[in-house]
Write a sequence for this structure.
């Protein structure tokens, strides 16, 4: 049983870490602020879920697992809220979204 938990834990940890790296690389390729916020918010939330669930499976005691799950719940509420607040502040500051230039060529970033 311990071997199954270890394997599942490592699968979750590796999946979260891999997704985090892929999301970070994809984040550098996004053309504007709004796209970057959306990409960062999605990968941050999903990676947090995967990594903290993997760590919870590795926890020795119930108090440690409970702290990890409370941290996960906190991150699930604050991550999307922070992304929304950033997007709203950018919109309030009249930052326009990126648009493709006429004729199909992409505009400067």
């Amino acid at each position: 049983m311990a071997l199954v938990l270890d394997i599942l834990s490592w699968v979750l940890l590796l999946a979260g870490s891999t997704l985090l790296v892929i999301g970070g690389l994809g984040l550098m390729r996004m053309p504007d602020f709004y796209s970057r916020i959306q990409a960062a918010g999605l990968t941050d939330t999903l990676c947090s879920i995967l990594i903290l669930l993997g760590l919870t499976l590795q926890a020795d005691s119930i108090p440690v697992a409970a702290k990890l799950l409370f941290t996960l719940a906190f991150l699930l509420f604050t991550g999307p809220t922070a992304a929304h607040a950033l997007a709203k502040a950018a919109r309030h500051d009249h930052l326009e979204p990126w648009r493709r230039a006429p004729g199909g060529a992409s505009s400067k970033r």
About this structure: Residues 62-92 form the longest helix (31 residues). The chain has one domain: 2-92. The mean pLDDT is 89.
